[in-house]
Amino acid sequence: MTDTEALRSAVRELMPRAKSDLTELVSYRSVYDARQFPVEECLKTAQWVADAFAAEGLTDVGLHETPDGSNAVVARYPAPPGAPTIMLYCHYDVQPPLGDAEWQTPVWELTEKDGRWYGRGSADCKGNIVTHLTALRALRKVSGDRFPVGLTLVAEGSEEQGTGGLEAFVPKNVELLRADTLLICDCGNFAVGVPTFTQTLRGNVNVVVTVETLSGSMHSGMFGGPAPDALAALIQLLSTLRDADGNTTVEGLTSDQKWDGAQYPEDQFRSDAGVLEGVDLLGSGTVSDMLWARPALTVLGMDVPPVVGSAAAIQPKARARLNLRIPPGTDPQQALKALTAHLQSNTPWHANVTIETEATGSPFVGSTHGPARTAMEGAFAAAYGRPSTTSGQGGSIPLCNVFADTYPEAEIMLMGVEEPKCLIHAPNESVDPTEIEHMALAEALFLASYTG
C-alpha cells in the first residue's frame, strides 16, 4: 500500500471521530460577544481545542490573551533538522445564530440531514479545526508519533467579531508564531469536490450614514409636502450608489475590472445564492467580475420605523449601515475617502449628513507560486482525483495582510471546507463531510511530502 493510500485509509477510518469531535465543538456557543453569550462558552471551546492538539503531540500549548480580551490557542511542534515549519490556522469563535426561526435543525446540535452536517460553526470554522485534527491523526497513525515538519497551530478566538485581537497579537509575538508556510483554513472550495485555492480576498469599508432634516417627528397630514423627510432623503441617497443595472457607482472608484481566473457559472451562482426565479443578477460584468474583481456596495441595515406600529409622521432622522467590498488594487483609505465624498455630495435637499467609519480592511492576494504551492497542488490532485483551481472570495480576512507583513518570505495559502452550500454566517449552516475527509487527506499528504 502506498503512503497516499495508507493516509487515505487512515483518514476514512477517522471520520467517525471527526463527527464526534465536531458534535462537541458545535455544542459550544462560542460567540465572542458577552452581550449575547457567556464568555465561558469561548473559554470552554478554547480549552477543548488546546487539549485536543496537545493530545496529538503538539507542545507548548497555551491560551494567549489578545488585546481585545479573546484567547488565541497556540501550540507548536519543533521542526526536525532542515525541515520547514507549517502554520495551521483556524478560529473557534462563531457567528451568532441569526434568524433562529429560519433554522430547520437545532442551532447548537450537529444534525445529519441529506448527507450534510448542520449546526452553527459546522463549517466556519469548527469544520476546519476538525480537518486539522484529522490530518494530524492520520499522519501519526501511518508514520508514528513524529511529524516530518514543524507545526504551529493558531486558533483565533474573535475572528467573527472583527475586533482585531490576533491582528494586534501577531507583531508582538513574531517568534512564537513564526512559520515558513501558512495554511489559512477559513475558506472553501469552488464547489464540493473541486479543490480550490482562494487566490484573492476583497477588502472592506464599513460606515454608518445618518441623515437629519427636522428637530422632531411631524404629522404627515399637517406638514407633509414641503417638510423634508429624512427617510426619503436617505432612500434617495442610497439609490445613487448603484446604477440601473446594479453596478456600484461610487464616484472615484473603478468598476470595470475583469476577473482573469476560473469563471463562476451563472446557473451555479443562482443556485448557490438562492436567487428567486425571474430575478436578475446585478452588474454588467460576469459573475466572477462582480464578485471578485469589482467594488460592491451593500446596505447591511437601516434604522427606520417598522411597518407595524408606524405612525403618520414625517421622519426627522434615518440612518443606514453600509458595507463596501473592494478588490485587490484598491486602497481602503482611498475607498473610504471616495465613499464619504460621494455620500456628502449626493445627499439631497441640503439635509444634514454624518458619516461614521466603523472599520476598514485591505484586500489580499495569496501566494501564486513556490515550492509549498507546488506541493499542495500535488496533494490536492491526489486527494480529490482532479487538478486544483483558483477562485476569489468576496469576504476579507484582515489577518492575512498582517501575516504577510510579519513573515514576508512565507508562502500563504487559503483553503478549507467552506464551499458555497455551507451557507456560512446564515441560518442552516452546514458542512459536507466529504469535504472534511478530502481536505484532511490533502493536508496530511502535504505535511508528509513537503520538504521546503
Amino- and carboxy-terminal Cα gap: 26 Å
Which secondary-structure class do the elements indicate? alpha+beta
Which architecture of the largest domain does the CATH hierarchy give at level 2?
3-Layer(aba) Sandwich
Main sheet: strand order:
1-2-6-3-7-17
Radius of gyration: 24 Å
| Domain module tally | 2
The CATH homologous superfamily of the largest domain is called Zn peptidases
Strand content: 15-25%
> What percentage of residues falls in helices of 4 or more residues?
25-40%
So what's the overall shape? elongated
Quote the average pLDDT.
94
Q: Compute the number of helices.
A: 13
The largest sheet, given as strand count, sense and whether it forms a barrel, is:
6 strands, mixed
At the third CATH level, what is the topology name of the largest domain?
Aminopeptidase
Molecular structure report:
The protein is an alpha+beta fold. The protein folds into two domains: 3-201 and 363-449, Aminopeptidase (3-Layer(aba) Sandwich), CATH 3.40.630.10; 203-270 and 285-361, Alpha-Beta Plaits. The protein is 34% helix and 22% strand. It contains 13 helices and 18 strands. It has helices spanning 3-27, 39-55, 126-143, 165-169, 174-177, 220-223, 230-239, 266-273, 287-293, 332-346, 371-384, 399-406, 433-449, and strands at residues 59-65, 71-77, 85-91, 111-113, 116-118, 150-156, 181-185, 196-201, 203-212, 218-219, 296-303, 313-314, 317-326, 352-361, 364-365, 389-393, 411-415, 430-431. It has a six-stranded mixed sheet, sandwiched between helices. Strands 11-13-9-14 form a four-stranded antiparallel sheet. A three-stranded antiparallel sheet has the order 4-5-18. Strand 1 (59-65) and strand 2 form a beta hairpin. Helix 3 crosses helix 13 (433-449). The longest helix is centred in the N-terminal third of the chain and has 25 residues, at 3-27. It is elongated, with a radius of gyration of 24 Å. The protein starts with a helix and ends with a helix. The relative contact order is 0.19. The mean pLDDT is 94.
